[in-house]
Amino acid sequence: MKTDVGPRSQSAGNISLAMKLVLALTLVAVGASVFMTFAYAPEHRVQGNLQRIFYSHISTAGICYIAFIIVAIGGTMYLARRDPKWDRLARAAALLGVVFTTIVLLTGCIWGTGVWGACWTWDPRLATTLVLWFVYVGYLMLRGYIDEREQKRRIAAIVGIVGAVVVPVNYLSVFWWRNLHPQSTIIVEGRGGLAPEMLQTLIVTFVAFILLFGLLLRLQVRLERLSDAAADLRMAAFAKDGAY
Fold first, then answer.
1. What string of H, E and C letters represents the secondary structure of the chain?
2. Within-domain flag for 37
3. What percent of the chain has pLDDT over 90?
4. CB atoms < 10 A from the CB of 159, how many?
5. In DSSP terms, which residues pair with 193 in a beta bridge?
6. Could you tell me if residue 67 is inside a domain?
7. Cα 47 vs. chain centroid, distance in angstroms?
8. Is residue 2 classed exposed, middle or buried when 0-12, 13-18 and 19+ CB atoms within 10 A define those classes?
9. How far is it, in rounded angstroms, from Cα 212 to Cα 160?
């Protein structure tokens, strides 16, 4: 039986070495991020130490955007080429996107409780972030409800592409509607922005999360590949049993 899991393009040794290098870089970046967040970046004059959650909150929000854009790209490429590797990429990115969006919502809740006095308000940025979370949780649940493989992949690809529309809406919500979330405070032309130490800490933290996301995405794609291979084996076993 022909499977849709093709041969590996690299040797196991090369992949192992690359993974070790990425893992080492990730650990260094995460360590630097933690140090800079708590020991290098200055305390905020109004929010105090609570503001330190800003670095991970903003960074994970950026990772969410990247993850859901990858889902849309994977879905588009699958519809165009019908190559299962793009579907596996979309599945892996969607799962990680949900995880990182959950972190965004939780850190936002902690920060909001201290700054606004409420864990949740129906702020447009918060509301659209929650919509993103529901869209991609629904994306993952949809895949579990549809049994026929090709139909599942096609419908999931469409949902992933349409759902990505929420990403620019979420980003632009602070410009379009009245928001508790401020507009850009990172670099504000003519009005300063973040202190240099804060900006440097944010950059290092974002790089650390990028590396972590890339590492997790690579591992998750490999898990999805193994999952497809296991599904192929089950189908082959059922077909063989049915022949007797």
1. CCCCCCCCCCCHHHHHHHHHHHHHHHHHHHHHHHHHHHHHCCCECCCEHHHHHHHHHHHHHHHHHHHHHHHHHHHHHHHHHCCHHHHHHHHHHHHHHHHHHHHHHHHHHHHHHHHCCCCCCCCHHHHHHHHHHHHHHHHHHHHHHCCCHHHHHHHHHHHHHHHCCHHHHHHHHHHHCCCCCCCCCCECCCCCECCHHHHHHHHHHHHHHHHHHHHHHHHHHHHHHHHHHHHHHHHHHHHHHHHC
2. no
3. 61
4. 21
5. 187
6. yes
7. 28
8. exposed
9. 23
Residue at 186: amino acid letter = I
Q: In total, how many domains does the chain have?
A: 1
Range of the domain at 177: 56-225
> Dihedrals φ, ψ of 211, to 5°?
-65, -40
The answer for 169, left when phi > 0, alpha when psi is -120 to 50, beta otherwise, is alpha
Separation between Cα atoms, residue 115 and residue 233, nearest integer Å: 54
What pLDDT digit, counting tens, does each position of 52-107 carry?
A: 999 999 999 999 999 999 999 999 999 999 999 999 999 999 999 999 999 999 99
Answer yes or no: are the C-beta atoms of 55 and 201 closer than 8 Å. Answer: yes
Kindly state whether residue 131 falls inside one of the protein's structural domains. Answer: yes
Closest CA to 170 of 136, 140, 143: 136
228 or 187: which leads in pLDDT: 228
The token pair that represents 108 in the structure block:
């936002």
**Can you tell me the distance from the alpha carbon of 39 to that of 41, in angstroms, rounded to the nearest whole number?**
6
Is 192 part of a structural domain of the chain? yes
